[in-house]
Every structure is written in structure tokens, then in C-alpha cells.
Amino acid sequence: MRGGPTLVVIGTGGLARGLCYALATTTRIPLDVVVVGRRQERAAEVCYVAATRAALAGAPVAFHPKTADLSSDDALADLLSRLAPDGLVLVASSQSPWERTTAPSAWTSLVKHAGFGLTLPFQAELALRAGRALAAVRPAAWFVNACFPDAVNPVLAATGVPVLCGVGNVGLLAASLQAALDLPDQRRLHVLAHHAHLHAPHGPDEPDGADEPDEAMAWLDGEPVAGTGKLLAAQRAADRAELNHVTGLSAATLVLGLLSGAQTDTSLPGPLGLPGGYPVRLTGARLELRLPAGLALEDAVAFNQRCAIRDGVVVDGERVRFTGPAHAELDLPADFHVAELHQITGQLHQLRAQLRDRPPFL
Question: Would you say the pTM of this structure is higher than 0.70?
């Protein structure tokens, strides 16, 4: 062990790897990273690559593989109690975003038709379990959720689970705009955007990059940035798996700021349980919103909630509302209280199991 802070990363997929591989080359403080997965060989593989990269980079960071039953509240609580982390980053859920390409079925067709928001119960399932376990055994540690944080973090907040913020989504858009505008950092840049903005919000008859009222919004030195759609065109054209290299580095920068106490100006999804993504400032683990002058919080939230409709789900306080065109065809309530989420998740598990055995219809 390095003797510095301990970070737990739950997940072994593409974004977890992007985060760990970035930490391996950018860490400048002694750090222990524990990679937790369902399968030992995958966690060990992530740690081998990350540790070797760290050795080549001369970075004072060590990586340790662990396995856990991620479906067990007690197993997670026991593991986190023993590891005593300073922070936890969750990068795993019970619904892979890659299933539509790796195992297309009637289920993936339904998700495409209804909107990614239909998977909210699966994205929130492990986030709720991990967040509760961390709060119970390590209440001073911070929790960063990378699983659909634009909608999951409001669910966490509504159920009393502390969450600092998410990563990706608006963070990726802000990084893309920083590069497109040739900025050295994001101190002068403020970005307001939702997960839905990973894709252009244009209709079939409108050109790529056309600005619309509900396009991602950005300000530079307090002035609105024109043509954000065009500035984001390269990011939106890139392969989604490749984008994990950007989000991974962005997440690593955030994590290192949290652990070192540095000030970080950026934009993040789900900060303090808010829906969508906002410009923020972090000083260590203290987070505050960094809205541009003249933009009220209620207007920023309303913008994100309007954009959430395109994703197929809106979380408003303690209510969850599916907005996709397919909800009327499902035997699921379109609007329910967050306390009913466990029941809805069980129903969706049954539906998914049935539809995975059927061929895709889109």
C-alpha cells in the first residue's frame, strides 16, 4: 500500500478502465486504487494494465483487484468497511450501454424506441446499494456516480443517499468545447447540458450541428457561445467507446482534485443530486454551482428537465415519469414515486428477460 488516500472504483468496463488508465499516468500524490468487479480476472486485468502504465510513468499509485457480490448489500458494506476509502466512484450497473451492439434483441429495440431513460431502474439499482453502504460504514467519504447521473443522482437525493456528483455527459461536452475553443482549462467556460446532448437535438430535416433552443448551452467569459452544435460535431461523430478515453481522463482529473484538495472548475452531471448537468467549482470535496451571471438555478433546472424528456425519463423531486413513446405499450406505470422504484425494477427485470429471447424489431 502507498500510504496515501484510498479510492474504490466499482466496475471493470470501458469507462472504469479509462479512469484507471488515466490515473496511472496523471497521479502525482501517493494513492491506492481498489478496483472492484464481479469477476476476479477482469479486475486483475484492469489492475495489471494500470499498474504497468503507472510504473512506466513513474506515478505513485498502486492498483489492487477485489471481487464482491454486487447484488448484496451486506457484501458491499463489509468490503467498504474493510477498505475504508476516502472516495468511491461507481462505474457499473445492471444494464450495459453496449448491449445494443453486443447482443441485440427485442429488449434493445425497446430501449431504442422508448429512450435510454427506460433503463433508469437498472442504472439506479447498484448506485442505491453502493451509496447506502458507503454512507453507513464510511459517512465522511464522497460518492461519485457515473451511471446515468443526470437522472440517477436525483433519485439518490430523493431517497436520502448522499451523492456528490457524476462524471461524463456534460463533463464530456465541456471537455469537447474546451478543446474546440482552444482553452487551457475550463475556468472561463460554463456549460449547461444534459445526457441527451451527447446526440444532436435536431430533426431529420435539419443539418448536423444546427443550433436549437434546446441545444447544449455554453458561456465563455460570461458571454453565450454561438454554434455549440458545430463545436460538438467531432465528439458526436466519434465512436462511443473511444469517448471513454476522454471521460476517463476528465474523471481522473476530478478525482485527483477531490483527493488533493485542489480547486477544479468544470461542468458535471447530477451535482448534489440535481437533474442534468451544470457548471461547478470544487474545492477538494466541497462543491458549489458556478452558473453564469443572469442564469437562475430554477431556469437551469427547467432547461435540463425539458431536455430530459428526449431521454425518456424525468425525475422531479420524489416522482419519476417515463416520457418515451413506448411506455403506453408496457405494463408499467408511467409516473411513480421513488419509493416504488424497487417494484418497477423487478418488473423490468422480468420484461427484459423475456425480450432478450426475441429478435430485434428495429
Answer: yes
